[in-house]
């Protein structure tokens, strides 16, 4: 069974929910090459928040990877919008960022989820329980 099918299962391994609360540590926002894909709605929202026209925002903060629009990275691979290890647009961050760590490949197995603890301190036993229904909305 493929990963995506496992996640779409009505009774996946995380059906009782998962514990997570973002601490804002910023570790998921850099450190290794990646992409933050942007939707049209993300572009509209972020441009407005930064008081830039959409063209100005696109020019300054984005580039295309294989034809898809992504936020740029700094030389050290941190997100261009990460400032002092904090997301500078936290309250209106892109959908991809708001749904982390509830991503298909992380939820594909308990092992992947456990591994994600190594770089996301928000995944821990003290964190609030996020219900299965809430998790599914992020997929
Ligand atoms: S690594 Fe986890 S806790 Fe840290 S900012 Fe990212 S989601 Fe939040």
UniProtKB/TrEMBL annotation:
<dbReference type="Pfam" id="PF03692">
    <property type="entry name" value="CxxCxxCC"/>
</dbReference>
<protein>
    <recommendedName>
        <fullName>Fe-S-cluster oxidoreductase</fullName>
    </recommendedName>
</protein>
<dbReference type="InterPro" id="IPR005358">
    <property type="entry name" value="Puta_zinc/iron-chelating_dom"/>
</dbReference>
């Amino acid at each position: 069974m493929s990963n995506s099918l496992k996640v779409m299962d009505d009774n996946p391994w995380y059906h009782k929910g998962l514990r997570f609360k973002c601490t804002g540590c910023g570790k998921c926002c850099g450190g290794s090459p990646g992409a933050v894909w942007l939707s049209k709605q993300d572009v509209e929202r972020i441009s407005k928040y930064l008081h830039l026209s959409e063209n100005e925002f696109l020019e300054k903060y984005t580039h295309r990877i294989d034809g898809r629009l992504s936020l740029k990275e700094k030389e050290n691979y941190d997100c261009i919008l990460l400032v002092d290890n904090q997301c500078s647009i936290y309250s209106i961050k892109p959908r991809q960022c708001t749904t982390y760590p509830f991503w298909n490949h992380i939820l594909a197995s308990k092992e992947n989820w456990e591994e994600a603890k190594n770089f996301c301190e928000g995944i821990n036993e003290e964190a609030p329980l996020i219900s299965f229904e809430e998790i599914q909305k992020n997929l």
